[in-house]
# Entry
Amino acid sequence: MSDSAQDAANLQPALQPDAPFAEPPASGPVCTCGAAWHPDGDRCTHGHPRPGTPGPALVHGARSLHVRLALLAECRSALAERRNGILADLGGPDGLSIIRTDLVERYLETSLLAEWLGGNLLAEGALTAKGKARAAATLYLQVLDRVSRLASTLGLDRRAKRLNVAQEFAAMHTEPERCD
# Structure
């Protein structure tokens, strides 16, 4: 058998659709870009996936839709609890104006951003490799300032829930007057 016939026989199993994970030939470029296979076998040295593979591998799952939705559900429930607590501290949702309720939402958003930036600074550090301050550190301080301003605008003290004045007035006049 000639060399070209033997090479064609060696390539035949890799080209069959029944064997999508067949081993690539040992020598020569195999990718359409002309690069050789990476030692792990499912990518070329330029990073292109091998034809027939399921695609890019899921390495850590941080961007997985399932992970994001699970984290989002946890964040939503925690934010809902926090929102309810703040609204209760301000006297209940019925006693607040639309603008003040919107300020509560902005406070929650900025405090969530501040928490994320704080975690990022703890994980990555406040300085770059060259010793300069990271942009995240400056942004974190700006967001903390905004959280403080929103908190002072909303009010830092608890307020008693306002009772319905009409009900109070009706209750005062339905009791019989005592003549002592």
The mean pLDDT is 75. Residues 168 and 174 are 10 Å apart (CA to CA). The helical segments are 3-15, 65-89, 98-124, 135-154, 165-174. DSSP finds five helices and no strands in the chain.
